[in-house]
Amino acid sequence: MTLKNIPSKVFDILEQDPTTSGAKLFQMGAVPSERTGRRWKGYFKNGKAVRDEHYFVEEKVTFNSPDYVEESEEEIIDLDELIAYSQKLSEIYQKRDPLIKTCDFDFPHDEPIAVMFASCFHLGGRYTAYHQFEEIFNEVLNTPRLYFITLGDEIEGFLSSFKDKKAIADQLYQVPTQVRIMEKVLDQLRDKNKLLAGVAGQHGGWWMAANYTENPIKRYFLESSLPYFDGMGYARFKFKSQTYRVAMAHKFKGSSMWNPHHAQMKAHKTEFPSADLVVMGDKHTYGVQNVNSYSWEYDAGERESDRVLLVQVGTAKTGPDEYTIKGWSTGRLGWPAIIFDPNDHCITYTETLSHTRKLLGV
Ligand SMILES: [Fe+2]
Description:
Number of helices: 13
Oligomer: single chain
Bound molecules: fe (ii) ion
Shape: elongated
CATH topology of the largest domain: Purple Acid Phosphatase, chain A, domain 2
Strand order of the largest sheet: 3-8-9-10-12-11
């Protein structure tokens, strides 16, 4: 318990009459303010006060409180207790709604794996390529050692508060039904141990959390005991002899309309210098670039590779939605499978699932 020094004069007054209010102490010139009076009185009552002979409160010009000012209630807040309680509450909130930045995935074998990073299915939207989505999805389900990470915008997710009412009306289903559809899709991946993690995007995730205080997509991942990143995420893929570092996000900052990897490179240079792969969604376009990075560090033995793979993944929303065609190309499909070699430090990628199976040897 932390003891608090309070002036002798206050001690004397309270010893004589422990009911003396903070306001009264202030009027008597014993304390610098009513609030301090209430606080010191609280310390006195709780046995936390120590008499300090050398503590004098400077005389202040006081005024008579007007009649309408009622005396405040006694001090009910104990700062030490409040801070300890706040810390406990903060831990409870973090348990209920964990915000994570990193996680590890262990692959304790010597076989290569592939991960499809997929963003922007926009399930429930009018412009989603459902047949193509289903085809890809079934291939993933039936390909051993091919895993799946969602990079946000799993549903169309336009809520009633969205300013463009046409966008709301164009949805094939209400948002709660879209969430149910997404759950059915993810259930199949999860039940085959193919779903590794999720990352929040605007549609559904962020908007739902901002409007209704809970992101149901995050809730799905939590209830499935799977990691979920509310913002950027940094994961390690660990094999027996190799570890790969992957930075992922729905979107990194610094997008360029000319260079689809500007944001990824910025993230690599400013936040994730050890990354082997930096991948994001959001932009509904596709691009992969394998470039040299930190070659001085590599030559000095500080990095396992002098390459970083920068990836922009596409969308299943490939129809001519009105917002996009006003000034942009329509969305492009493009969810490459990234192949991780368990023995040599090497990442490669392919755009077709038949090639993925070849590289995986299945
Ligand atoms: Fe999207």
